[in-house]
Amino acid sequence: MKVVLDANVLVSAVIAEGASHSLVSRWLDRGALEVVMCPALLAEVEDVLGRPRIQKRVKPELAGLYLATIQRLAELVPDPKSISSHTRDPNDDYLVALAREHGADYIVTGDKDLLEWPEQRPLVITPAAFAELVGE
Q1: Would you tell me which CATH number, out of the four given (3.50.50.60, 3.30.70.260, 3.40.50.300, 3.40.50.1010), belongs to the domain 2-133?
Q2: Are strands 123-125 and 75-76 parallel, antiparallel or unpaired?
Q3: What percent of the chain has pLDDT over 70?
Q4: Where are the domains of the chain?
């Protein structure tokens, strides 16, 4: 199954137990998913992990190792071509373009703008709902 994991899922996975942590651990430990990622998404994760309030919970060395692991295991593709605004938050449009260009089955996110987006193609799902879908 091919998915795009939003930055909020990837960051949540490293700072707290829960559905995001379980999902990302499953991917990192067992390669159970095909995760598509682009430089813009990787940069967003890196930016958030570099923020002082996050660095209180995740040491920079661990953040660097985590980013390197994600980059090594993900299908790293070029940033998607820009698309006209499709979502309530234009900053999320690149995730939709990434998912569409690379045939992702799902976008996994905690972002309400994407979760409540009426034109979901591909489907947008929370980490908890995705875990239930795949039988975790």
Answers
A1: 3.40.50.1010
A2: unpaired
A3: 97
A4: 2-133
